[in-house]
Amino acid sequence: MIAENNYRCSIVRIEDCLTTEKSSGGAMKSYRKELWFEVPTRRALINITPKVETCLKESGIKEGLVLVNAMHITASVFINDDEPGLHHDFEVWLEKLAPHEPVSQYRHNVAEDNADAHLKRQIMGREVVVAVTEGKLDLGPWEQIFYGEFDGRRRKRVLVKIIGE
Amino acid sequence: MIAENNYRCSIVRIEDCLTTEKSSGGAMKSYRKELWFEVPTRRALINITPKVETCLKESGIKEGLVLVNAMHITASVFINDDEPGLHHDFEVWLEKLAPHEPVSQYRHNVAEDNADAHLKRQIMGREVVVAVTEGKLDLGPWEQIFYGEFDGRRRKRVLVKIIGE
Amino acid sequence: MIAENNYRCSIVRIEDCLTTEKSSGGAMKSYRKELWFEVPTRRALINITPKVETCLKESGIKEGLVLVNAMHITASVFINDDEPGLHHDFEVWLEKLAPHEPVSQYRHNVAEDNADAHLKRQIMGREVVVAVTEGKLDLGPWEQIFYGEFDGRRRKRVLVKIIGE
């Protein structure tokens, strides 16, 4: 049921509201922390929002941007819902789009068996950038930050970098 | 027709040009606005480039970064072409990769029927970060910023956060 | 072999370490450069990490963020492994998810034949944001920045924008 014109020009209204302009002209600050993970399974989705909030408090930064990125190329940082049914759906869906087996289907799998993890991470994304407003993560009502592990069972890292004032 | 060696080492040249170095050492400024949407259909792609340009003018920021992100996890902000044929292709393609129906195929669909929207948004992405140069969005010739709605018919928001000087 | 509970709550430990807090309060600087490409084939993956490192050195910025984005909507900038087998896997996988042929399957392909390139780039992503720490790209051990060309044989650009202090 694809109606092409549904897919364009279908706005009732775009409103602007909740403007907060800031122009304090402060000095720039930066902050860096690594979060380390060791996931006992091959795959896992872990809510790291509280960890990132702690970093933000430690930084003392009130206005700026937070970058949260996987430092490994078989893992992801992404924002979505913290709901177990959905996480199961992600697992089934990613296996369909980029199946782990047969491992022989991938040329990358010579000494390793994680080619699918490199592909899955492209769909889920490497990083998120989140606004910092009045000292808080400026997230929507259901937005939660996740570490997506697709080739676990070893120590891996996420980088939290905050710049602002 | 996959030629592996086509896929690597196939550059004729990488040139550098159009350098603009800035080192004015100004004070950091920040700006925040929410754009609200109420899309009457389940799905829609809406060009929000003029809205983001207006935000940038309001901010007075000349050099920096703009973050534009969906604040809802069944929507996307992405950059691509403003061409109706392509938007139709996106609709068909996303339905193929993450079909809405049957809704019973997803465990997330208990009280809701929007699991596919959570998946579609992972492919299209949550956010874009755009450079600000000389007071303008530093976009390529065909780059346009879109709000991608995948579970509409209610009020939803996009965040525009600008930092710079 | 999908074990739902494998997919959640499976952390052994999340450790924090390697904290580097910076609060120097310096003045903000910015830097911009375009990298130009002319790829003789339709598709190619090109490691641009050394180019971005050169930009960072030129900028003199020690703490901040680097944005690297394709300025064209049929190309990508992404971070993954510099391994030829994996690049072949990406090629096969992207052709499966968003096939080039038959070109008639896409409505965008009226004067052009690159609809698939617009789709492939959504999976691979438009941009990366990388932290700058102590004057260096703050990348994990295997992270390399790539330009992904999906509709080459003409001049196209990547933008490098750095802000920080």
CATH-derived architecture of chain A: Sandwich
The whole-number mean of residue pLDDT values of chain A reads 89
Indicate the multimeric state: homotrimer
Residues in helices of chain A, as a percent range:
10-25%
Count of discrete structural domains of chain A: 1
Counting helices, strands and paired strands, the structural category of chain A is alpha+beta
Strand order of the largest sheet of chain A: 2-9-4-6-7
Task: Give structural notes.
Three copies of one chain form a homotrimer. Chain A contains three helices and nine strands; from the N terminus they run βββαββααββββ. By secondary structure, the first copy, chain A, is α+β, with helices and mostly antiparallel strands. Chain A has a single domain (27-164), classed as Sandwich (Jelly Rolls), CATH 2.60.120.460. The first copy, chain A, starts with 12 loop residues before the first strand and ends with a strand. Mean pLDDT of chain A is 89; it is low at 1-23. Strand 1 of chain A pairs antiparallel with strand 2 (28-38) of chain B, so a sheet runs across the interface.
